[in-house]
Structure prediction request, 474 residues.
Amino acid sequence: MLVLKFGGTSVGSADAIAQTISVIANAKAKDPHSVVVTSAMSGVTDLLVNSARAAAAGQRQPFLDAREVLFEKHLTAARELIDSEEERAHYEQHISEQLEFFSRLCSSINVLGELTPRGLDVVSGLGERMSAPLLAAALRARGVDAAWVDAAEIVVTDDNFGEAAPLLGPTCARAQSRLNSMLDEGVTPVVTGFVGATESGVPTTLGRGGSDFSAAILGSCLSVDEIQIWTDVNGILSADPRIAPQARTLKQLSYNEAAELAYFGAKVLHPKTLLPAIERGIPVRILNTFNPDGPSTVITKDPLKNGLVKAISAIRDLTLINVEGRGMMGVPGIAARTFRAVADVRANVLMISQASSEQSICFVVRRSRSEEVQRALETEFERELERHYIDRIRPQHDVVIIAVVGTGMRGTPGIAGRLFSALGEAGVNVIALAQGSSESNISLVVSHEDMTLAVQAIHRAFFQNRHVPTPQLV
Ligand code: ASP
Ligand code: MG
Prediction:
């Protein structure tokens, strides 16, 4: 059995949906027991969310416009894909109802002048409730017996609106009874991604990009052989090809490597998405709907001993903050106070490094949060700054974290040496660095100007060098 999940671009237009249908038909020919999970058509969730926000801020026009746009977008695709007049009328009726509901919701939000996370989940989940019936009807038009399923009837979650966590016990019981009986009758379920409901039936969402999570949850409940994430790129690449044109698709990654890469900004699956799959050791494969026979990447439990460095990722728009001062040496509590102050303004720290001389602590936050963080630290250390125990809180903007990820680095000597000679030869200045004790990731901070040079140099050193074991690329 397989779960096939299609992202927004795979159902973004009639042409894309036609492509998606051929992928599903091919999969079904090999394994008739396939469950489909779909995202909203591309751009739809953003439009829904923005309209609701604007409504809360007093603007009615955005949701009135969105209603028209969404009607046209779905109906245009439906006209091309659904031949039967009856089916088309049925779908049109469904869309009209959903959009009528959307408009009433936004109206209420507008009157209240307030948008709660609970209200937003009702609005943002509508996209999948419009795309799933479209895909199911389009499948039927091509002779594939399919029916859409609202995941609110299957995926039971807690009430952490906007980022709800699934309750696997009740979810799996429902998934098995509902989906298996459809499959037994030869019907392909097309399940809405992203959405769920609490035990008492209040609609929730699993967080932005949550359709991948839906696929992993259902795949785990049904103990499928593979969870396939169909997207618009050829799997996971060794680096961003816009930065390093030599980048290639990786054949295999471990769950751990995929999680490290996601953390460091690569457009990979969110680590929590992988959890249900990890627990059952189910492989997750990433494929391209628009190049179905092209390269793909499989994420599995057992890393084949394949290569040292698997991938290089870069996160931009960051600021390195230095807390510097000779008077900090041996004073306990500076680090604790620093990070408490950062936590108090709810800024996320992406990387930390402290030299053993203890004369400075530096860490990286998003550029957009840096001013707030700096102010918080200046307040926290007002006395120390006055007495020059701490000389200054110094931000350095426009830096990039480059993360070099690979479980094969673990216990292999000489990686850092190779890395730094490559960067040295390329003339790249490394501003700070950190290595997690898992040894499957080395992160370095360089200035934004050096990013391209640095990524290319590292890629050359680890992927285009005969003397280095390289991972399998396709
Ligand atoms: N449609 C949702 C979003 O845009 C979920 C998804 O695409 O995975 O966030
Ligand atoms: Mg997505």
Residues 234 and 288 are 5 Å apart (CA to CA).
